[in-house]
Design goal:
The protein has 117 residues and is an alpha+beta fold. The chain is built from 7 helices and 4 strands.
Length: 117
Amino acid sequence: MAVRMFGIANCDTIKRAKTWLSEHGIAYDFQDYKKSGVDATALRGWVSELGWEVLLNKAGTTFRALSDAEKQDLGTEKAIRLMLAYPSMIKRPVLHHGNSLIVGFKPELYEKAFGCG
C-alpha cells in the first residue's frame, strides 16, 4: 500500500514521523506543501473526512499572526481558504495510508495503522 506524507520539510514533527517510518521499513512519498502548495481537491477531501477543526492548526504562529477579523467566524469554507493561502496552518503531518488519514504524529497511532509493535 502506498503511503503519502504531506507536510513541511523542516517541521520537527515531520522529521520524527519520517524517522519512525524509516525505522519500521515503511516506504513513503513526501510532499512539502509549503514548497509545492496544497491541492485544493485533496484538502477538501481531508476536510470532508476529518473536519476542518482537526486540520487547522490554531496553536501555530501563522494562525496567531492573523488579524482578529480573519480568525472570527471560522467555518468550513473560510478554514479551507486560510489553509490554501497559508499551508503552514495545516496540522502536520497528514499521512495518507490506504483508505485512511492520520493527522499528527503519535507512535501508537502509527503502530496501530501499520500493524507494528
